[in-house]
Design goal:
The protein has 237 residues and is α+β, with helices and mostly antiparallel strands. The chain folds into two domains: 53 residues, no CATH class; 145 residues, Immunoglobulin-like (Sandwich), CATH 2.60.40. The chain has three helices and nine strands; from the N terminus they run H-H-E-E-E-E-E-E-E-H-E-E.
């Protein structure tokens, strides 16, 4: 709190000091008068200094208030909020590698081979992988067939599209009569299930496809040449 200065004249200040403090100033007289009161040069200097102090204090306080008022101004601000939203849908992706049995020599025994169906699903998403019977005419889960491509094999032999070579796909390394045929879950076949862990390469789940060309009666009569089939893997989630 700043107290406003009170205008007091020099004479009033002198009288106040004389009355309250009983201060007497001696005159430079020889001899000084005892029944009169006068102000010495020292007393006048004191009064003049007191008045100057009052004026200086008033000026300092006024200047301080002026400077303080100049620094009060501040930049105005305003605020707002907004929501940030997104959704992560459940989804999967799938890829597969080719299964190449290599050469099969009829009468020399069955030939096996592997490929992989690789699945990525969003974390925590349950999925199943089904394989169809293939693309050859009349193919079934119990009788998958490759057909002749008409292209020459390494020996230069060609198998017409009417030529068939029987094969089968399984869910485990146990193939043949004791194995579980990988199909769509119908007709005694089974699918492969899993749970997604994410969509990155490290989270990919590779399901091995186990294949066999049996040395069956039908295959013993296979025509030399190149054979192929196309199998579709379907991921349900």
């Amino acid at each position: 709190m700043v107290t406003e200065p009170v205008d007091i004249g020099g004479r009033d200040v002198y009288k106040m000091l004389q009355k309250r403090l009983r201060i007497r100033f001696s005159c430079h007289r020889i001899p000084p008068r005892r029944d009169s009161m006068c102000v010495s040069l020292t007393g006048l200097s004191f009064l003049r200094g007191l008045m100057n102090f009052r004026l200086s204090l008033t000026a300092v306080v006024s200047l301080s208030l002026l400077l303080a008022g100049a620094g009060v101004a501040q930049a105005g601000t305003a605020t707002a909020t907004f929501n940030v939203t997104a959704t992560v849908p459940t989804w999967c992706k799938v890829s597969a590698t080719n299964l190449n049995f290599g050469p099969y020599n009829p009468g020399s025994g069955a030939v096996t081979g592997n490929s992989a169906v690789t699945v990525n699903c969003t974390k925590g998403t349950a999925f199943t992988v089904a394989l169809n019977a293939g693309s050859s005419t009349g193919a079934t889960f119990t009788n998958r067939n490759m057909t002749g491509t008409g292209a020459a094999d390494p020996a230069g032999d060609t198998a017409p599209s009417s030529a068939l070579l029987n094969y089968q796909l399984y869910t485990t390394a146990t193939v043949g009569s004791g194995g579980t045929v990988w199909g769509d879950g119908s007709t005694g076949t089974s699918t492969v299930s899993g749970t997604g862990t994410g969509m990155g390469t490290p989270q990919a789940i590779a399901e091995t496809v186990y294949g066999q060309i049996p040395d069956s009666t039908a295959n013993l009569a296979a025509v030399p040449g190149a054979y192929s089939d196309t199998v579709t893997a379907t991921v349900t989630y």
